[in-house]
Design a protein that fits this description.
Elements: E1 2-5, H1 14-25, H2 47-59, H3 71-79, E2 83-89, H4 95-104, E3 111-115, E4 128-131, H5 134-142, E5 146-150, E6 164-166, H6 169-177
Parallel strand pairs: 1-2, 1-4, 2-3, 4-5, 5-6
C-alpha cells in the first residue's frame, strides 16, 4: 500500500505560526475565524501575500508546532502498513526547511515528493491520500482515489460519504487495519 501524507495542516501546524506573523502586521485574526480554505479572501489578504507569508514562516521551521503529539511514533506505525511518502504542495524554496522540520520531529517516511499545486497530487500513484485540503479531497474523489480528510476548521463543509474523515493519524491507522 502506498500512502501519501500531507505536511501543512496534517503534520505541521503552520497556520498557528502564520497567525502569529499575521497578527503582528494586520488586525487580529483568531483560529476560530479561519473556516474556509481560502479564508484570506474574507480578510482582504492578497493570495500571493498569504503564500509568501507562509513561506516566511517555514524559514523559521524550528518554531512550527506539530498538529498532534507523538507524530514520530504515529508515523512509524503508519509506515508499518505500507510505504509512506510525504506529498506536499509548496514553493521549492521551502522544501529544505520542511525536510529539516520532518527530521527534527523524527517523522518516518520513505520519499519526499513536492508538487507546485495541490491539485496535482491527485495525478500521482498512491492508494491512500491523507490531506486536509477540501479542494484536494474533491480532486482525489474525481480521480477515484481513497482519501482520509484530516479534520480542520477549513474543511468542515465537506461531507461526501466516500471521504473518510479523521481527527488524528491514529484514526487513519485503525481504519487502514480493517
Amino acid at each position: 500500500m502506498k500512502i501519501a501524507l500531507d505536511v501543512d495542516g496534517v503534520l505541521a501546524d503552520v497556520i498557528k505560526s502564520w497567525l502569529i506573523h499575521s497578527n503582528s502586521i494586520r488586525p487580529h485574526i483568531s483560529i476560530e475565524q479561519i473556516t474556509n480554505w481560502d479564508f484570506w479572501k474574507k480578510f482582504k489578504i492578497n493570495r500571493y501575500d498569504f503564500y509568501e507569508e507562509l513561506n516566511l514562516c517555514w524559514k523559521d521551521w524550528h518554531s512550527i508546532p506539530t498538529v498532534e503529539d507523538n507524530l514520530s511514533k504515529t508515523t512509524q506505525n503508519l509506515s508499518n502498513l505500507g510505504q509512506v511518502d510525504i506529498l506536499t504542495a509548496r514553493a521549492l524554496s521551502t522544501n529544505s526547511f520542511v525536510k529539516n522540520w520532518l527530521e527534527l520531529h523524527d517523522i518516518t517516511y520513505q520519499n519526499y515528493v513536492s508538487v507546485i499545486d495541490g491539485k496535482m497530487k491527485a495525478d500521482l500513484d498512491y492508494d491512500i491520500f491523507i490531506d486536509d485540503s477540501p479542494i484536494n479531497a474533491i480532486k482525489f474523489l474525481e480521480h477515484k482515489k481513497n482519501v482520509f480528510l484530516y479534520s480542520q476548521p477549513w474543511n468542515q463543509h465537506i461531507s461526501d460519504p466516500r471521504i473518510k474523515r479523521i481527527s488524528t493519524l491514529s484514526e487513519a491507522i485503525e481504519q487502514l487495519k480493517l
